[in-house]
Amino acid sequence: MTEAGEFAVATAGLTKRFKAQVAVNAIDLLVPRGSVYGFLGPNGSGKTTTIRMLLGLIRPTSGHHRLLGRAMPHNAGQVLPLVGSLVEGPAFHPYLTARANLQRLDSVDRHADPRTTKVRVDGALDRVGLLAAADKKYRAYSLGMRQRLAIAGTLLAPRELLVLDEPTNGLDPQGTREVRHLIGSLADDGATVLVSSHLLSEVEQVCTHIGVMHVGRLLTQGPIAEVRAVSEPRARVETDRPADAATVLRALGLTDVVVESGVVVGTLGALVPDKVVAALVHQGVPVTGFAVAQPSLEDLFVSLTGEGFNVSG
Amino acid sequence: MSAAELATSPAARPLRHVSTRFLRSELRLIFGRRRNQAGLGILAVVPLILAITVKVSTPRPGHGPDFLASITSNGLFVALASLSIELALFLPLAVGAIAGDSIAGEANIGTLRYLLAVPVHRTRLLAVKFAAITIFSLVATLWVSLVGVAAGLALFGGGDMTMLSGGQIGMGPAVLRVVMATVYLGLGFASLGAIGLFISTLTEQPIGATIAVVILNVMSFILDSIPQLSWLHEWLPTHWWMSFGDFFRDPVAWDGLTRGLLTAAGYALVFWLAAWARFSDKDVTG
Prior knowledge:
CATH topology of the largest domain in chain A: Rossmann fold
Oligomer: heterodimer
Largest sheet of chain A: 6 strands, mixed
Order of helices and strands of chain B: HHHHHHHEEHHHH
Shape of chain A: elongated
Strand content of chain B: under 5%
Number of domains of chain A: 2
Distance between the termini of chain B: 31 Å
Low-confidence stretches of chain B: 1-8
Shape of chain B: globular
Distance between the termini of chain A: 34 Å
Order of helices and strands of chain A: EEEEHEEHEHHHEHEHEEHEHEEHEH
Strand order of the largest sheet of chain B: 1-2
Mean pLDDT of chain B: 91
Largest interface: A-B, 43 and 37 residues
CATH class of the largest domain in chain A: Alpha Beta
Number of strands of chain B: 2
Number of helices of chain B: 11
Helix content of chain B: 55-70%
Structural class of chain A: alpha/beta
Low-confidence stretches of chain A: none
Strand order of the largest sheet of chain A: 7-8-9-4-10-11
């Protein structure tokens, strides 16, 4: 057993079965306090179902979980006021303004001080850049603005944990950058952030930890450097004689050598990169470019699952 | 987060045990919504039409609902005649629309999951929703009475009221009895609203829940009109509504009214508990 307060989120064997389908299969999610945890996986891999269970919206078929050290859903009344959440996209009353919608959310929170509602609502709107559009009806909001408003809803009170399900959905590249920046600043304030995404590259820059979901299972999790260390660097040779280059690489002991048009890629293993170049030149293979690259998370995902980062069935 | 906000640690947000903010927010949602304002407008049309048509023509005796013939003698009867017309469909429909929307409407647009994540305890949510339905029901019924009284007094004047039992009471007591009869009916519609709240926990389609309430209401009236089912009549949710006329006997005939109030309380309790049993551990996936 771990110390009660060490993890902001700790699940044990958390499982959800919908009729015949197992949406989430016995996952042990561990989100350390103070981390920015990237909860990654393709659409349909069970991320949202997991998040719904974390917040007590749906009941696990088996397994249990703790939020901020306290057992859920038993302690929901004490824990959830400290948790800001965005679940499966924004949802507000279409005929109310953005400001009225946030006031509505605040009014149902028994921990909220009505005397500071205006200040907090405006502060949250300001922080996501919506203050100028605060009195527009939600109906008139674009998808990106709706997403920002949902994030503003999580900022109405000081939080210890933020659970953000696909916060960059529907945002343009500029909006995506802003959300990344916001996540970083929330983490700097001391909050733990659990952010899910089906776009690996979007979140990997801000995360300290990642967990990878695939067909309801948590394939791997841990500090981002540790997870990446599992995968070995690959050498990439640009040449106009790829077939010859591939022969040389295989002779040197590189594995998984792949030949594409004008490019040969292979896993270095323990080999030192300069030896590869020297050997190629020695064999008379013209090298027009050479690089050693750490695989991207996407490559890592492919190596973990044996398939691409596509929708799980 | 500003320095001032940081100083407020999450733990420093005390729980307010008693707060009317949620209920007030519900009422603002209900009464601020265009659709519901239009509905209240339509409810007010009946007493206006009634008062005007009676003013310009004389109703033939033996036709039309109770109280209609008495309108010319006292404007207060416009309110009572309007209630007896609207209790069959218009008022139940209005309450059914609010009740059907209560949970299913939030589920439909997705705000339900955000309410629960705030967190709002599910029992509290159902309690506040039913309180709002009851208040709406009372307000809508009082609104029909108010418009009826205003139109009636304007066109026919007030004065002493001749009771159904023949005696007369003064204007003050008469108004009091109109108010009591209106509240009685409002509570009756609220019990139908409890059925609507329960149905609203079964679906994510608010319109479907509303239609179901209206069908149950009409069904209850139909069953109430079949003599062979007389053993069932006193248990029907709508059976005692017409007893509101008993407020206009001298003295007030409390027997039917008491049964009516007990029936309303019974339906409200049973269906609120059914809603709770259904909703308290339901998976919220919408």
